[in-house]
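Weekly sync notes, structure subgroup
Attendees: PM, AL, DS (notes)

Item 1: joint prediction request from the bench team. They want all two components modeled as one assembly rather than separately. Inputs as received:
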Amino acid sequence: MKNFAIFFIVGLLTSCSQTKLRFDLSTVNSKQDLTTLIDQMVKNKVRIDSSSYAPKIVGKQGIHYNGILVNELTYFNNSFTFLTDSTDFSAKKILELLELRNGFGTYEEEDGFEDKPTFVWNNSISKNILELNLLNGKHLAAMGDKDFAKLTIEFHKQYEIPLANIHKEIKKYDLENLYALKVKSFEYEYQIWIDDIFIGNFNRGGQFIDLNNYILENGEHIIRYRAKYIGNKERSPYFEIEIIEWSKGDKKVIQKALSDEENKDFEFNFSSKIAYNLEGWKNGKDLRKDKQLKEKIIELYTSVGEAILQKDKQTINDLFYDMRKETLQVNYNNDFTISTEYWEYWLEIFENTYKYNVSQVFEIEYNAGGRLIYTQPKDKSDMLVITGKKFSETFNHLIYQPRGSNKLKFIRQ
Amino acid sequence: MRILILIFIVFFLANCSSKTSNSSEEGLDTFISELDGKSLEDIETELNKNTKQLEHFIKMFDKEGLFSNEIKKIAKDEEEYEPVFKFDTTPIDELISQFQDISFQQTFENHNSQIEFSLNNKDGFDNKPKQVGEGFYESYDINKIFYSNGTIKTDGLNDFQVGFSFSREMGEALPIDSILINYKLEHIISYDSITVSLDNPKMNYKNGIITLEKMDRNYAYITKSDTIAAFIEIKGINKEGKILSGIGSSSGEQSPENQKKIIEGLISSLKLIQKKLANNDFKSTEELQEYLRKKLNNVDYFKDTDGLYHKEIYSKGEIHAVRMYFENEKETKKVQFIAKNNTVFGDYTQMPITDREEVAFINKQGKIQFTVKGDGFSSLNSRYYESEKYFHHLNIEKKRMDTLLVYEIYAASNGLVGIKKEKESDNYSLFNLDNKKISANKYYKLFDNGGILFGYTDNYICMIDKSGKESVLKDIRHVYNSSEGMISVERNNGKFGFLDGRGEIAIPFIYESVNDFLLGYTAVKPVEGTYKIIDTKGKIIVDTNSKNLSISENSGKRVYRFSNNEIYNSYGKPIFKD
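Output from the run, pasted for the record:
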């Protein structure tokens, strides 16, 4: 309410202009709004210069941004840029308006010799870039009455498909702990498990492994490793493993194990404090006795390949939504750009792929009591390879079968 | 059409040769004939856009209707001068003798040949003839075309043009061996000089009159009768008689005052045409063209009615007189030269047929063998092609273009191709021109160097001949550049040497650093030694005691600079020795 009142008063004060304010750019929140406003301008015989690469409207023709007069407007298909009038502290006013609307923007370092502080606000609807031109103001705090602003608003493409909007479903918590495994190793070959899930085979050097991917909820976890020394004894064997917890940016080691032996099998516990509680493979079917498992795995990857060739967006959404959502949740990541870029990469895959191949010969690894499986192809590098002209992508994910379903699903990358 | 209207206006207003009103009619005919084949809808859309642009253009005229630079007083100490005009004949010999080595590339499209000429210049990189300056007029005429099938064309050649910047149409789609060209160079050998001033504003010259109409500070406005030929040069002169540098000028068949009126009149006519198009008054493009011919031909602004040519100049100083130079006598020099075709034709050469969205493949005799659907393919070699989204193989047996759904194709100069089947991290398999596999997928890298194909496997580097046979390079861990037939190579022990084109050791592996050969020489540094310049046999031409070297190259020449201040040229000759 307070913000609204300030907004209203600021808007009222800035509308003290002799030019009649007819077209308000602050009401434009989408490409469609922009088109509608331009149509109104055309109907009202605003003079538009169409001679160069983008239409331009110059001069006091009643265009404003919430009461701040606009001197020049240029617009494109998906964005517009305007310069405010260089009178009446317009630069300061527009900065205050935008901060009221969007909060504090990201300040960008000035580049070059000109004094043009720049602020950026980027949300899922648009990117707003405000460049302040100091003519008689000395610095930001002392912006003069002649200083003017250039505001560029670019509208992001909006996608309706849920896979592009997962960020909206990600919950944020006060406690957002992240756990990682840090390994220091000289000349060891080693394997690591967490909660009976095989993480991988590693050779010689150290590793840094994110553990949240394998943690579904708060509780006790078991780390098991098997290390074999493969060096030539020029240096002493050394193997160190640490569990690190990040909490609000602070890092601490909560568990550590050392070894100087040639072969070591070891396991230890640690407690996680996690706010989320995910379904994951918790109640998945034990697949160790599923005689159709190999065919079902091939069917799953084939359905991905077919959906890509058919540009079947809905099927891709259905196949990857749960995996993607849980993967973002375990990292508490609700950044809209991650979701948008992920979907746009799928669009690129649809556009560029002309064939796919699924591995037919593979070994199956059973994890978490048979509820979570991974496949190691023997006839190919990955379970699914998609190919286009100088374009390729591979897929090989952790899979489970949800309770009550007869179909497999991807659950982790 | 947009470009056409603006070119037409510019041509009309800025015409700087004294032509009669017939040339304006020719300009109008050209403009109207450009509408051939265009739909009324397309013409209407372009006309609407162009009329807006003309309306914008007209705003650039000042209040007095003048499209002008600024008339201003220029202080004495800001005046800038030029040397007195003198016609330079020194380039003549060079211009006449530059056609020693001319070649061309030939492609085919829509049953025609497209030819682009090139001047093969050994020293430089520019493949075009020297530009001619003021007072020179050159022309190229095709004399004969010699076709590969033995026929010679001598008639119907007048329409063909010689182009060095882009390809031009030159008759039927038949492979050409060579073309005989006549080059004519006309140049001035003497000229007249005419000066007008406020004291002497009118001068008679060759049955016409030159008049100084107006002079003001750095501005002068001259008219000359259309019967007088164009001047080669026109300059303002200051009080002391010095030639002033020019800032700008404009010229045309119409007076400056009339130019804005002309555009306004043209806009009115165009708006009338817009209205008629919007009302669907024309049944066809031809009907529109006929209307334009009648309508625009009768209006004054397409006609030069005053018989005068108008010229305005702006100088970098106060003008007291204007001097013009006119051609008096000319001389013509001619030379004939042969341009050779350096296109390599395969057994099948593609010829796009754009209106059918097909590509025809023709043989060396120019006969179409078969056609396939498509807009045209970029050639990787004589049988493998790519389009925007796919790779293709020309299947001669089945007379079709097969699409290859593979990740990548690498076309080697020996005719083989390496194909990665699925993804970037795959190895290449080798295939021949018939798309038959001749090796397993084992090369993680293929590259051409000096006409030799090298393959890298996990265990060795080899040379691969056109049948796919390998010659393993023992102990070699990397192949670098090829220069003048010498391939620089690094052994597993880190030492460098050179191989020849057969893969034999040409210069032993005794160096820790080598450079490419240029003009038969290079600089090398033996292990724990100092730099030397050697020839292609490895013979030391220059021995230095320097452990550092910098090389600079320009226009195909090299300078070797050693840390002890010894400097040598490309041939190992000292430039400066301390």
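Discussion: Residues 1-23 of chain B have pLDDT under 50 and may be disordered.
Action: AL to compare against the crosslinking data before next sync.
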